[in-house]
Amino acid sequence: MLRQRIASTLLRAEQASATSRPCLRNRHAQQKRWNTPAPKAGDGPLMARRADRELPDISQVGFRWGRTLPLFAALVAASSLAIFNYQKSSSPVIASTLYALRTSPTARAALGDEIYFKHQIPWIGGEMNQMQGRIDISFSVRGSKGTAVMRFTSRRPSSRGLFETSEWSLRTEDGAWIDLLEEGDPFRSLLAAPDDTTLPPPLDDEAARRGFRQQGALNK
């Protein structure tokens, strides 16, 4: 009987040790899970993540927009310049100067007929601020005889005053400077402010009564 008890005790001890070995292995494996390396570049998407995974290397984490941000800023600046240049090229001031060039005998003698912008997409240099009364622009023009750079400068001395042209000239390809203001200032009426209206002279009493009587007859 004693031998049977000892044998049964040893058998139970062996069974208990056999069942405890997988648990120890699992615990050991769980303790080694932190050794799983983080995904590297080119490994593909990580479908599952563990809470105890290895942290990524700080040296690999950088500013992704570091290379594309300067390019984006350059594109925004170029687009802004193109928009402002188009706004200036389509303004009534540019159209008035081109019309004045086509009708100026001096400009037609230097450039010929069909005076227009030299380039298909013109570049209008200088300042054009009609609200502040400052216009100082220049752009390239061409004709049937040659090309030149036209400059137009005009100032408004006061908010209620008219623009006064100080320079309207052409600089030809050979360096010759042509003053177009010798023929007079054709822009005085074109650059008048919208609110600068000249009131008509007052009517006499007889004309005023006659107009009132006519309006009364029409109202009947």
From TrEMBL:
Q: Tell me any Pfam family this protein matches.
A: Coa1
Q: Which GO terms describe its biological process?
A: mitochondrial respiratory chain complex IV assembly
Q: Where is this region: Disordered?
A: 18-45, 191-220
InterPro entries linked to this entry: Coa1, Coa1_fungi
Which GO cellular component terms are attached?
mitochondrial inner membrane
Output this protein's name.
Cytochrome oxidase assembly
Species source reads Cordyceps militaris (strain CM01) (Caterpillar fungus)
